[in-house]
Amino acid sequence: MMSFSFDGFRVGISFVMMCIVYKSAVNSLPELSPQKYFSTLQAGKASLAYFCQADSPSTSVFLEELNKAVKPLQDYGISVAKVNCVKEETSRYCGKEKDLMKAYLFRGNILLREFPTDTLFDENAIIAHVLFALLFNEVKYITTLGDLQNIENALKGKADIAFSYVRAIGTPEHRAVMEAAFVYGNTYQFVLTTEIALLESIGMEDIKYAHLYFFHCKAVLDLTQQCRRTLMGQPLTTLDIYRFIKSMEAPLLTEVAEDPQQVSTVHLQLGLPLVFIVSQQATYEADRRTAEWIAWRLLGKAGVLLLLRDSLEVDIPQQANVVFKREEGMPVEFLVLHDVDLVISYVENNTYIEERQEDEADDMEGPDMGMQDDEVAESVYRDRKRQLPLELIVELTGETFNTTVMASDSIVLFYAGWQAVSMAFLHSYVDLAVKLKGTPTMLLTRINCANWPDVCTKENVTEFPVVKMYKEGENPVSYGGMLGTEDLLKFIQLNRISCPVNITSIQEAEEYLTGELYKDLISYSGVSVLGLFSPSMTTAQEDFTEAGKYLKGCVITGIYSEEDVLILSNKYTTTLPALLLARHKESQVESIPLANTHVQEIVQIITNALLETFPEITVENLPTYLGLQKPLLILFSDGIINPQYQKAMLTLVKEKHLDSVIPCWLNLKNTPVGRGILQVYFEVLPPLPLLVVVNLHSGGQVFAFPSDQAITEQNLLLWLKKLEDGLESHITILSAQEWKPPLPAYDFLRMMDAAASQHPTRKGPEYMKETDIQENDKQPEDKSAVRKERIEL
């Protein structure tokens, strides 16, 4: 329920901002010394102070956004001041550089809240976060349907609810909701969520945009009855929310007995039309029930009145049963509409409501930078109260980075505290630390590049987040897998051994191939690769060794080049040089000749060998299979596939009949997006299982296996032969448009360096040696603090 302490919050807020420097004069901000500023703080006075230290890097962009927020904050009784720190100042707010990365929210002299300044990325974010903190009791943040139901039940018969969904905290929509809550927080209970699933659970289909519902709970006396809900149809702006709430406060239905041309209500003042339901004494009760029903349907869109024809001095056409008034001063329209839906449709089609833009970012200046990772940002906000055991991860600084990574084998997470993806991945990184707690593995560390950009630039980190492994005597290796706990754990565990492993005897080679030699790693690598070479094949051995280093952390590789290597080649019927692929799950060893192959070819052979013969397609592995540039032969199934279908597929694969396609299957229960894919292929969702060929890379045609035929080896071969001969017709052609991210990636460190020194760093090409990059940039190198040649993998 609403808190009575809100008025105290409203008048007693001191919001202290910590900055780094801003050399240009900002006339609208009064400048004070720290002592002067703190001496002026009084109970009942609200203040927003920005602390600056003269000899720190510039944050002009942030100060510009803060300057834009000055006037709106003053409208809410919060003044703004710039406080200049001096070098001798040792207070908490003018002390260490890391303290200048935070924002401090005060009430009088009492600290209420700390924010990282990078969360206040623009004017909207500053105002939204400040008001959100002040209205902690007035605006309930929820994450589950149960939370919403509990609030709804508690307020039945007591107060109404304004429930809103925004895509992320700090957006313009979030600011608009907070400004409305500042005004109406003592009248209505405001509830906020960023959970899409919660919005879906209350029956909202279009969840692409922010929404606001008004729950009519005050009039509900029966606790078993659900509160009526009215959806706001306009975009979430401060003015539109004000209009919407005012329309909720207006009477649901008003009876009038005067000329409609002379009638005026609050709805016309809010820009909403009026709908008069014409009634007469004989049908009054039925007409009133109809009018109430229409009023609920049009709530927030129009005002509804019951017009008593018998009491009118003005004549209304006898056949007219509805009068429509668009706005003040305009002639009314007399209508004949005998159906409630016709009335609703007429009003909605003849009322100007600002249409939503396809991209709400069009209403903002510049590209929608803040919303690129909106779902990630929402998840970060949802988990903001989760206490992470960060003590399991060593935090590095500019002073401790080199000494730490030189002293022990280390995993370093380079991240930015202001970036949503970084903060989301930090949770996975902490989960990794929990899994590895108590095991003798590498030291897990992290460094915030927002605080230590020089270190990250020197380590060639220009995008976030990045994980690198540092091992004594070896080149640092960058992790390039999925940003999840399990994938990163696999990377670390497989890096415990050298790649390739040097096998020295036939017995050791057999143990390696059976999985006994590294049985604790088999769960992370289902395939072990052994290269067979005669002692004289030095070039081939070097190429295989380079390929093994490239694949380090992805698969276990070993090399055998002893004099008795022919024993193994004869046993597995292969010629030297060769690869032996041990598939531990199937207990099979496959041989592949390596004559005249080079590093990249060996890498590709091994990478392809890691792929499953008949894989289940998921969101995670789809890009890998698309990268093979072959048509997909997909079996869609609503659960586990029929073993007979699987046997037919595997038989055709073994007999090399499916080399021109990628046979795979998709479980709609595990990957629900598959239903959406099928709806693109077919107008009506067909019965499952269903087999299709999708030629994404050449024409985009989609072909469907005949539904009246059984999926057998013979039927599949005949159908594929018809496809090859062009005798089958496609069911649809997919669009050739590219699937690109909404915004390009940005080199944020380069931007920061350019702003500070006008000398941006250069990003080297992928797989380029870091030492080469450093030499090209001609930057001096601390020989004692930098390892040997570094390779990006």
Q: What would your notes on this structure say?
A:
Residues 757-793 are annotated as: Disordered. It comes from Myotis myotis (Greater mouse-eared bat). Residues 28-131 form the TXNDC16 N-terminal domain. This protein starts with 5 loop residues before the first helix and ends in a 16-residue tail after the last helix. The strands form six sheets. Strands 2-4-3-1-5-6 form a six-stranded mixed sheet. α4 (123-134) packs parallel to α6 (172-184), α6 (172-184) packs parallel to α8 (238-249) and α12 (374-382) crosses α14 (420-436). Residues 1-27, 353-373, 742-752 and 754-793 have low confidence and may be disordered. By secondary structure, it is α/β, with parallel strands linked by helices. The protein is flat, with a radius of gyration of 34 Å.
Please describe the structure with a list of short key phrases separated by commas or semicolons.
single chain, 793 residues, alpha/beta, Glutaredoxin, 6 domains, 5-stranded mixed sheet, flat, disordered N terminus, disordered C terminus, Thioredoxin_domain, Thioredoxin domain containing 16, TXNDC16_N, TXNDC16_2nd
Ordered list of secondary-structure elements with their pairings:
Blueprint lengths: L5 H6 L2 E5 L12 E2 L1 H7 L6 E7 L6 H16 L3 E7 L16 E6 L2 E7 L6 H12 L4 E3 L3 H11 L5 E5 L6 H13 L4 E5 L2 H6 L9 E6 L11 E4 L6 H12 L4 E3 L9 H4 L4 E6 L4 H14 L5 E6 L13 E4 L7 E3 L4 H10 L24 H9 L11 E2 L5 H7 L2 E6 L4 H17 L6 E6 L4 H6 L7 E5 L6 E2 L6 H10 L6 E2 L3 H9 L12 E6 L5 H13 L5 E5 L4 H7 L6 E6 L4 E6 L5 H12 L11 H5 L5 E6 L5 H12 L7 E6 L5 H9 L8 E5 L6 E4 L8 H12 L7 E2 L14 H10 L12 H8 L16
Parallel strand pairs: 1-3, 2-4, 3-4, 7-9, 8-9, 12-14, 13-14, 17-19, 18-19, 22-24, 23-24, 27-28
Antiparallel strand pairs: 1-5, 5-6, 8-10, 10-11, 13-15, 15-16, 18-20, 20-21, 23-25, 25-26, 27-29, 29-30, 30-31
Helix pairs in contact: 3-4, 4-6, 6-8, 12-14, 14-16, 18-20
